[in-house]
UniProtKB/TrEMBL annotation:
PROSITE patterns per the UniProt record, alphabetical: TPR
Keywords tagged on the record: Repeat, TPR repeat
UniProt name for this protein: Tetratricopeptide repeat 1
Record organism: Hibiscus trionum (Flower of an hour)
Domain of life: Eukaryota
SMART domains xref list: TPR
Regions of compositional bias (Low complexity) in chain numbering: 28-62
C-alpha cells in the first residue's frame, strides 16, 4: 500500500530586506525537506496455504494412486509472481490467483479421494466421473501436471477393468504426455495393447519400461511372452496380404487367360535373390 504525503508548500515568505540572509537559510531547509514526497509502506509477502494431505497411498495391485500433495504445493509456489512490485494491482491479482489455484487444487484432491474409494468398491463408472471432476478443476493449471497425470492413469485403470481397451490407451497417452516416464501408465497401456492384439505396440511399451527400470521383471516376462505372438501375427498378416495380391493378380491376368499360378518365384542358391519364371 502506497501512502502519499502532501508536498510541503513554501511557507517561508519574504520579510524585510534586513532579514534576507535568514530567509535564504529557511528556503534551503524547506527545499531539503521536500526532496521525497512519496513513501511506500512494505506489504508482507503472502505465503501459500498447505494443501490437505489426502494421500491414500499407492495401491499398486489395483493401479490407482494419489498425488503427493507436498509436491503439488511446491509446484504451485513455483507458479507465483515473485517479481511483482508490492502494493501494485498486479501483485494483488497474483495473490487472488494463488487463492483460486489453491481452491481448485483442494477440489481436485477431494474428487480424487472419492474416486479412489469408489474404485476400491468396484464402482468404476462412478470413479471415472470423480477423476474427470478432478481434471476439470485443474484444467488451467500447468503446475498441477502431477495430479492430472495420476487422474488420467486412474481413469485408464477403470476403463481396463470395464474392458474398454481403446479408452484405456487414450487415457494412458494423456498421462504420458504429462509424464513421459510414468511407469504405471506404460504398464496399463501395454496390457490394453495386448488385449487388442497390438503385440508390437505392447512390446514397445515393455521395452520402454526396461529402459526406465532394467530390473522390471514383469516387463521382461511380458516381452518373452509377446514376441512369439507378434511373430505369429506378422506371418498371418503376410499370408493375408499375399492372398489379396493373388486375388488382384488373378482378376487382371484372367483377362489374358492366365493366373498367378502361372508364375513361380525361384530362389538363386548363390545370391539368395528371387527370379520369376512363367509356365503354362
Amino acid at each position: 500500500m502506497v501512502q502519499i504525503e502532501p508536498h510541503p508548500s513554501d511557507e517561508h515568505l519574504h520579510h524585510h530586506h534586513h532579514h534576507r540572509h535568514r530567509h535564504r537559510q529557511q528556503a534551503t531547509k524547506a527545499t531539503s525537506s521536500s526532496s521525497s514526497p512519496y513513501e511506500t509502506t512494505p506489504v508482507p509477502t503472502a505465503t501459500a496455504a498447505a494443501s490437505a494431505n489426502a494421500n491414500g497411498g499407492d495401491a499398486a495391485s489395483d493401479g490407482f494412486e494419489t498425488a503427493s500433495e507436498r509436491d503439488v504445493s511446491e509446484n504451485e509456489e513455483a507458479d507465483r509472481s515473485r517479481d511483482q512490485p508490492k502494493g501494485s494491482d498486479s501483485y494483488q491479482d497474483a495473490l487472488n490467483d494463488d487463492e483460486l489455484k489453491e481452491k481448485a487444487l483442494a477440489q481436485a484432491n477431494d474428487a480424487k479421494m472419492v474416486g479412489n474409494k469408489l474404485f476400491g468398491n468396484g464402482q468404476y463408472e462412478e470413479a471415472l466421473l470423480q477423476y474427470e471432476i478432478a481434471l476439470q478443476a485443474t484444467a488451467e493449471m500447468p503446475s498441477a501436471s502431477e495430479i492430472c497425470s495420476i487422474c488420467h492413469s486412474n481413469r485408464a485403470v477403470c476403463f481396463l477393468k470395464l474392458g474398454n481397451y481403446e479408452e484405456t490407451i487414450k487415457e494412458c497417452n494423456k498421462a504420458l504426455e504429462l509424464n513421459p516416464s510414468y511407469m504405471k501408465a506404460l504398464v496399463r497401456r501395454g496390457e490394453a495393447h495386448e488385449k487388442l492384439e497390438h503385440f508390437e505396440e505392447a512390446i514397445a511399451d515393455m521395452k520402454r519400461i526396461l529402459e526406465l527400470d532394467p530390473a522390471h521383471d514383469q516387463a521382461r516376462k511380458a516381452i518373452r511372452r509377446l514376441e512369439p505372438l507378434a511373430a505369429e501375427k506378422r506371418e498371418k498378416m503376410k499370408e493375408e496380404m499375399i492372398g489379396k495380391l493373388k486375388e488382384l493378380g488373378n482378376s487382371v491376368l484372367g483377362r489374358f487367360g492366365m493366373s498367378v499360378d502361372n508364375f513361380k518365384a525361384v530362389k538363386d542358391p548363390n545370391t539368395g535373390s528371387y527370379s520369376i519364371s512363367f509356365r503354362r
